Amino acid sequence: MGDRMTPMPFEQLVNWTLKEHELSGNVFGVYRPYKADAKNNRSIFGRKLETPVGPAAGPHTQLAQNILASYFAGSRFFELKTVQILDGEDLPVSKPCIKADDECYNCEWSTELYVPEALDEYIKAWFLLYVFAKEYGLGDTDGFQFNMSVGYDLEGIKSPKIDNFIESMKDAKNTEIFKACKQYLMDNIDLFKNVTKEDIEKIPSEICNSVTLSTLHGCPPQEIQRIATYLIEVKGLNTFIKCNPTLLGYEFARKTMDEMGYDYVAFGDFHFLDDLQYADAIPMFKTLIALCEEKNLAFGVKITNTFPVDVKAGELPSEEMYMSGKSLYPLSISLAAKLAEEFDGKLRISFSGGADYHNIKAIVDAGIWPVTVATTLLKPGGYQRLVQMTEKLEAGNVEFTVVDPEKTAKLASDAITDPHHVKSIKPTPNRKMAKSVPLVDCYVAPCKVGCPINQDITTYLQLSGAGKYEEAIKVIAEKNPLPFITGTICAHNCMSVCNRNFYEDPVNIRGVKLVCAEGGYDSLMKEIEAGELKGKKTAIVGGGPAGLAAAYFLTKHGMPATVFEKTGSLGGVVKHVIPGFRIPDDAIEKDAALCLAYGAEVRYNTEVTSLEDLKKEGFDYIILAAGASKPGVLNLKAGEAINALDFLAQFKATDGKLNIGKNVVVIGGGNTAMDTARAVKKTEGVEHSYLVYRRTKRYMPADEEELEMALEDGVEFKELLSPVELKDGKLICKVMKLGDTDSSGRRGIIETEEIVEVPADTVIAAVGEQVPAEFYQANGIELTSRGRVMANDDTLETSVAGVFAIGDGLYGPATVVEAMRDARMAAEAILGKKAAVDFDDTIKDLSEVYDKRGILEGTRDYKVEGARCLGCSNVCENCAEVCPNRANLALDIPGLDMHQIVHVDYMCNECGNCTSFCPYDSSPYLDKFTLFASEADMENSKNQGFTVLDKDDVSCKVRYLGNIYDWKAGDADSVIPEALGMVMETICKKYDYLLG
Fold first, then answer.
1. Among residues 773, 768, 733, which one has the least CA distance to residue 753?
2. Quick check: 744 pLDDT over 70?
3. pLDDT digits (tens, 9 = 90+) for 70-120
4. Alpha carbons 549 and 485: distance in angstroms, whole number
5. Which CB contacts under 8 angstroms, 24+ apart, belong to 744-751?
6. Whole-angstrom distance, CA of residue 942 vs CA of residue 937
7. Number of helices (H) and strands (E), helices first, in the chain?
8. Is 0.85 surpassed by the pTM of this model?
């Protein structure tokens, strides 16, 4: 039905809650309830408050079920979504309107409901919280508070619509919805086990005695003061004014953002000049404090509103968006510190602006509360994250005295370098798989799919977590015969796509692999028995990772293989080029021994130039694992650069005892450039290791880990420089500047006329190696126009029958794990069968998985790191958890192996948040099987889905693959897949509360 959500009737909300809780113990998808203890009670506005935390005015307080889910997870202070005179269909909101995969952006503001609808939602929620607090023993029925939020000008606030809202929230007893909710509960009291009619009679009608004033950017100070005065004097409300980060001034905000890595966030000084100025705010606050003291009311400020920034990379379909979360926190807490100092802690501060599990206790301990949150709830774990936050704040009875200026100042100072708030050096990677989400059975482990060899990561994480390293190494070695190398220097794409990235840090899969290798290798080697190798023979040219892996897979399955290695040792680039400070030789030697354990032969110091000679020798197949050894070319107008691989080989051979001068420049921005610059820094006699690149660190191709290690080693980055010539001991460079962002998110570059000189006794070029095209051509192998091998995509067989190309020599420099992928593909083509099997990673007790979701914690010791795995192939409910409205449901469908995600159309406003966290290249709100409330709603959507025509008869109208069908349970000849039929039948019979 488009982007308009439909509020649920009170009766459905009650029935849904009772039935879901009876079935699973959950309430709107929240599976761990928080039960308040009176010993931790606080008070504010003359009322009790069991916890000083709750959802901010935003998507989590727009509908009644959102508020109930939040309460169930521990919220007790609810800043209701802002109401204003512009509402409903008249309020323009671009969709999708939320992007929260790292720092958060949105382009929505006040409630999307009509104000009377919003009023109804808040009153319904009031009853729900009261009733279910008692029914489920979650806390005292008077232990929570609603705080209304109104905006944006005095004329609108005085309008009949908003005035009625305010008065009804102050006392709802005369509203129709209050009467209807109360009557329904009285008439259906037998639904409850612990709630009586006397309890219902006691539900107070005085819902709100406090308000947060939200004003538009550019609202004059006189108008803000008039509105606040009106709310205090006329409406008699405890009043907080929501402040904007612009109070800090443009220079402070820009400097802070740049220092913390948010230099790409674009904003001008317009709002800073147009908004309330600090010099005007202070006397206004003092006047309002005095007024509230006279009226015996509380006054304070809400820190802060979201921060307006420009849309530059198509983040959202608007020209301007509002920043929040981790990047807003340093601004918000800095403003809090400034005001705490200004008022000597006597100005009450409520906080919202990047609060989360990591900082909330320090914020509250500084005397700043209540604290409301939004961005953290928009990430996987969702509302469930509140339990951990509320438990962290249990500190006995606490009364507000003052805000501590010193503690707040320290929070502001620490925020600038806090790793939870500093932006990563590199842009957030794309964590989506290149496939669409299926209608059923969509749970998947992104780590396994993201691994080029589809390593059974979740299986060996389970085993390692139990200390079963001997079993774990068997799982690893099934597909990965280089566990020490990949446990040390693997590029770990598995970790880049790990769902824990959305919590704090990925599971350190690579580190766990190394622990398993160290703990299980000896046992594995003792078990391996080389059998008789027979059948056709394979020659493998190259003893690097690709060649070794090919030998492993062939000989493990009984086929003879001989490795031809032109040097005196195995390991290729890893052995001869990658510095010893990255990986020790003994790790490489252990992997080589594993690869040869099934009987492969090796001919050392043998360079192959003719494939015909190998065939004449009796080899039936040839695998070329020749590497990409041809040096890349850097053209300088004058002077010459040393090749990076040549330098690294010399560095390793001489243990860094080279004469390359005091000032050395490395040109390049990839991983090889980082290794080279670090090696230069460790070379005897070198004082400065400079790294020159034409873009900034953010846009270098090197992995973030490689960049960080180079920085730690003291490599001096010279960004935005393009080398021109080496002359008189100086590298002459042209200065570049960043241009606009392209569709991939990368900034273009623009050459300037400015010249910079970098001291350079030696220049080393790390600009990419190339495949040995001449070798291939000499042996009759066809190449593409780019000089790469033409090969069958499925087998990697070249244009010469029986000859295969793998590893770096196929497509150019790649990773060790990609080399193993190629090796297995070629081996399987030769074997005529699969060379590895998949392992089952089913977790029988799913409570083990659910207990981890919504819980934030840092990286552990590698030996127990596997325990942090979220078991995504068993439970991946990101889309359900991150939906504020609970419009994506994870349902248990009898007969199907995993829970099924069903999208509920009438609950969705198409905010798009689920898109960011679905591991597929999909949007669950558009692409998952959808339940529609009516045929009309179904016609107004393109989603595949269904509407129930008769739940007792279990008949539905279904859209499947673009066609409309009438379906009924038991239809033997239906084109509707059986699994979808099972979903529809179960909803009619088991989850009928979804149908209203």
1. 733
2. no
3. 999 999 999 999 999 999 988 889 999 999 999 999 998 899 999 999 999
4. 12
5. 745/313, 745/427, 746/699, 747/264, 747/695, 747/696, 747/699, 749/694, 749/695, 749/720, 751/722
6. 10
7. 38, 33
8. yes
